User: What shape does this take?
Amino acid sequence: MPHTPSDSSKTSINGRNSRYIFVTGGVSSSLGKGIVSASLAKLLQARGYRVTIQKLDPYINVDPGTLNPYEHGECYVTVDGAETDLDLGHYERFLNVCTTQANNITTGRIYQSVINKERRGEYLGKTVQIIPHITDEIKRSIQILGSQSEFDFVITEIGGTVGDIESLPYIEAVRQMKWQNPKDTLVIHLTLIPYLKAAGELKTKPTQHSVKQLLELGVQPDILVCRTEHHLTPSIRTKLAQFCNVSHDSVIESIDAETIYDVPLLMQEERLDEVVLSKLDVDLSKVDKPNLTEWKNFLYRFKNPDQTVHIGLVGKYVELKDSYKSIAEALAHAGANLKTRVEIHWIHSEQIARKNVQEKLGHLHGILVAPGFGSRGIDGKLESIHFARTNDIPFFGICLGMQCAVVEFARNVLDLTDAHSSEIKEYTPHPVINLMAEQKSITDMGGTMRLGAYPCDLMEGSKVREIYGTSSIEERHRHRYEFNEEYRAQFEEAGMIATGINPVSDLVEIIEIPAHPYFIATQFHPEYASTVLAPHPLFISFVRAAVIAGPGTVNAENKEDSLRA
Assistant: This one.
């Protein structure tokens, strides 16, 4: 799991409080504010500073917990049980530091807090307005992390683009903070420099207009980070600096990268961290150079694999790959650890049936059945699991993937032909997966699942105990339904063993089939805890099993030896 780093020698910067860096976006969405923010944070962390990142999301939802994955990608869960934006996953994977609910603020949460205060009479009869009440609440939420005196830098990514009506209160809050503490506040504007093929040149006008919009709102960006497909020429940098009122060294090129993990190194080449520190009056001669040795080692192993393995990710939302972002990255981390290229085959569970399962899955070296909710695509997941189990293909199930593994085993091994999850079939005669007792009285949908980190004891002699190398773990959850304890004895007699148990609630957290080469499924979400520098052991073991099972590019007899190296 990500960890909180030990106390840095730089408990503060020159004896000063936390500095605030804001990252705004212009021209277009999806430019990569989250990756740029995480990359800057990584560079500052590599210099010895304590850094955290938060995301301000301008939608009215209190959190993304009730959003369809097609709308918002995956819902990332923090250790303290907050349902948050997927960008927080990037933050944790880059920094190897846990985030909390304070790292993701939505307009919904801001308004909810203000309205609750108004109902309690905290505004003493005043008219509650966007300014100052909403903006004051935004500033309070931004400064929570900084006020804890744990961080030298708080980087705040503002969702959406400048000019969006939803983002206006956030921009105003930034203006106020910059006015109140100009020496401790810095604004980075991420923008697009499009390339017109017909003209054969890069165009700066969209960026000029974007900066103008910021200026109209009272915010002068200190640094421009320019997303581009082609290198910026010196003349373009000069033009941008002149017309956007920034210094020449504050025009930072962010060219399209081969992988997201290249971005910190590209930002280092552009001296982004140096420019940031200089503008915040940090004496660079007294600051350590960034130590990115481990990061570079990871990147080398990631880009120079010894073999390729083919993993099928069977899910319900594969059209939008961000729906399973953490899983895809966890597989990449594990692959790099094993010097193995993990080729993910995105397979829609609705397209799998008994008649075509061999065609769809027969060429794979491992099958991962992904999380999800609802009845759509369940039959395809069950067929995928049956195929993996009966053909000795390494299988890994997560959350709903574990629940489907239980249902498939109940039907085809225990002969409980009508077995199902009560989520899918409420009145099934054999609810091998059932609604958790504490969930039965809950009616609200948002933030009411079993969320966050919970302990789990691992059975002695189990495969998962060997994989983790410890007897007790803590992993993050997001679910309402659980393994039905009434059927546990039947399952274990037939060969599916509960090898991970919550020590307080007795909830079954992990199941495995010891007789199978690799058949493990978890109720929790291990993908949330995988980072670049600390790949998750379950993903490492799964990819290793898939390499051993599949042809790869090394000799079969040498596979295990090569993976140990």
